[in-house]
Amino acid sequence: MQNFWKNRRVLITGANGFLAGWLAKDLVGRGANLTALIYKKNPVSVFETEKINRKSDVIYADILDLRSMKRIMKEHRIQTVFHLGAQAICQVAIKDPVGTLDANIRGTMNVLEAVRAVNANIHVVVASSDKAYGIHKKLPYLETYALHGEFPYEVSKSCADLISQMYYATYNIPICVIRSGNLYGGGDSHFSRIYPKTIYRLSRGLRPQLRDNSIRDYVYVEDAARAYRMVAEKMKHGLVGEVFNLGWNRPVSVLRVLRLIAKTMKKPHLKPETSNRSSSHIPKQYLSAAKIKKMVGWKAEISLEEGTKRTVAWYIDFLKTHKFRLHD
After folding, report:
1. Active-site residue numbers?
2. d(Cα 110, Cα 11) in Å, to the nearest integer?
3. For the structural domain made of 2-183+218-246, what CATH number should be given?
4. CA max distance for the chain
5. For residue range 63-80, what is the model confidence (pLDDT) as tens digits?
6. Alpha-carbon gap, residue 108 to 83, rounded angstroms
7. Judging by DSSP bridges, how do beta strands 9-13 and 218-220 pair with one another?
8. What is the 3-state secondary structure (H, E, C) of 61-72?
C-alpha cells in the first residue's frame, strides 16, 4: 500500500527511539508527511544516523505536556499516530518507578486525550509489550490473557494498554495495540540490552555478561516496524479496537543468544561470565502471533541468525565512527 502513505500526515512519539527510528525510515520512504516528536537527541538512533530528521518536521516536546500534544495534533492536522514514546528499560523502572509510571501511563493518556479533544477520527497505533501480561503459566501468551504486571515497568505497560482499550471502548477512537516480544537490531541506544552490550563487549575483547538465562522471543526490528505499518494500513478498512501480539514464536535462552553473537563475531572463545542476577524479571515468556498473521497478514521473516548478522554489522560500523566508553 505504497500510495496509502503518500502525503499522509503521521505523528510518531519518541520518533528517534529504537523501533521508532526504523518505522520513521519506512514511512518517510513511502512518502509520509512525518511529524517527529522527540524528547531529546539520540545519536544512536537510525532516525539520526540515517538523517531521517532532515526529512521530517521535528518537534521537541514532552508527552507529559497535554497542551503541547493537543497543539501538535491540531496544527499538523495529524491523521495517524504511532505512540512509541515511553520509558522502556526495566532496570530504570526499578530505580525510578514514579518516573516510569508517569511517562508510560500519563504519557499514553495525554496522547489519547489529545486525539479525543482534537479529532476522534485520528487512527492510533499504541506500542505495548509482552511485559504487560505479567507471568502466565500457559505458553505461548494469547491476546485474551489477562494483563497483570507485577514489577514497575510491567505495571506501567499493563495500565497503558488498558487505558488505550478504554479510549476505544468509551470514545470509539480507532485504536490498535501491539504487544511485542524482545526487539533487536541496529540503532538501539540502550547498551544495557543484550545485543548492543554484548557486541560492544566482544568488540573490545571482553567476555559477554549473563545476568539471567530467561527464555524470550526475539523479533528483528525491521520486521516489527513492518508490522506496525501493516496494522495502520488495515485500520483504513475498519480494523480497529484490536490487540495484536508480535512474536516469532521460537523462544530461545539468553545464553543461546550470547553464544550466537559470539559465533557471528568469530569470538566463540570468549565465554559468558555471570553478572549480578536480576530478581525482578519474568523467567519464561513468548507470544503467539497467530492473530496478526490471520487478520493482518504479517509474520516474522528475518531469522535470529540473519538478524544477528545484520545487527552485529550495524554496531561494528557504528562503533568505528563513534567513540565512547560503556560503563558496566
Report:
1. 153
2. 14
3. 3.40.50.720
4. 58
5. 999 999 999 999 999 999
6. 8
7. unpaired
8. CCCCCHHHHHHH
